[in-house]
Amino acid sequence: MANKILVFVEQVEGKIKKSSLEVVSKAVSLAEAHGYSTEAVTCGKEVDASVIAEYGIASICCYVNNNLVHYSGSAYRDILLAHLDGGEFRFLFAANTSQGRDLLPRLAARTNSGMLTDCTTLEIDEQGLTGTRPIFAGKAFEKAKVVSPLQFATLRPNVFEALKKPVTPELTIKNVDTINEAEKVLEVKGSDGKIDVAEANIIVSGGRGMKGPEHFTLLEELASHLGGAVGASRAVVDAGWRPHSEQVGQTGKTVSPSLYIACGISGAIQHLAGMSSSRYIVAINKDKDAPIFSVAHYGIVGDVFEILPALNEEIKKIKS
Ligand SMILES: Cc1cc2nc3c(=O)[nH]c(=O)nc-3n(C[C@H](O)[C@H](O)[C@H](O)COP(=O)(O)OP(=O)(O)OC[C@H]3O[C@@H](n4cnc5c(N)ncnc54)[C@H](O)[C@@H]3O)c2cc1C
Predict the structure, then answer these.
(1) By residue range, what is the domain housing residue 104?
(2) Whose Cα sits closest to atom 49 in ligand 1?
(3) What's the CA gap between 219 and 160, in Å, rounded?
(4) Residue 194 placed within a domain
(5) How does pLDDT run across 7-24, given as a tens digit for each residue?
(6) 304 lines ligand 1 (CB under 6 A)
(7) 170 and 27 belong to one structural domain
(8) Is the CB of 209 under 6 A from ligand 1?
């Protein structure tokens, strides 16, 4: 009898991702409401399961092997396929991050399962999962349902709350001894310890209006005052001013922070697709007709080179 919800928990460089803990919490609350049991599964070179254990999950299974140090789509797929075999799981959830978006479709295709992506709401009824996700750059919401025996969903980061719950989960560590060398990912470009833009609660994002890479120090300063991350438009990434890991939008990352400050960004539809579900959007742009103002909760019509230094100065004063 399939009575378990499985959550794929991501770790990067040995650290558990906050977005996965949000998924764990959502799985735990759905399980409690509908009489399911929960399990977290994670893969890595070594995994510190104690972080996952704080979020109310009933059991944790860690697959470890030196060759699993970095995410590998095919290696992780094979491990998860074997883990799902046996019919005890009804659902598999993951965060809608690049790993979740890569792994779950591979598994769904192999198991002939239905899948919901980028959910901002997720419910369970007799048939299974119903989820909502923003479409057309957040202008509309699509409600979708899956009816297959095994059902998958990815959840948008920063939408569900990660809630600590005191339980002592059952922990299993499994050494994986057969990882094909060809499946091993040798290197992943490091994030230099910066907050991942997809996980950040506050994002200070810059566009072509910043005029050049050297002026992003203004955004870095503001982001560091606020404890946030720096984001970028595609124009800026294409120009080589900022790394692709910071790109927000249709071909970059989808973000849902509490606060998104768009500086010198016009608000093209492809950019809005990645950030319009942010809780509060502040736009700074010298063109009062820029489309970014149509989604902004607060707008400042003005020059970023006047406003950002003044803002940094004021925040510095308040903090001191
Ligand atoms: C298939 C496809 C996918 C795409 N994917 C993405 C994506 O993922 N993410 C993304 O961002 N874009 C994406 N784009 C590109 C998108 O269409 C826009 O070209 C891009 O977002 C524009 O970036 P921008 O706002 O930085 O630049 P611009 O559109 O050039 O806007 C610059 C803005 O800065 C303002 N400005 C200039 N000087 C100042 C100043 N001193 N002070 C204040 N404001 C100032 C201007 O008024 C203007 O509004 C995609 C396009 C396509 C076709």
Answers:
(1) 4-183
(2) 266
(3) 27
(4) no
(5) 999 998 788 999 999 999
(6) yes
(7) yes
(8) yes
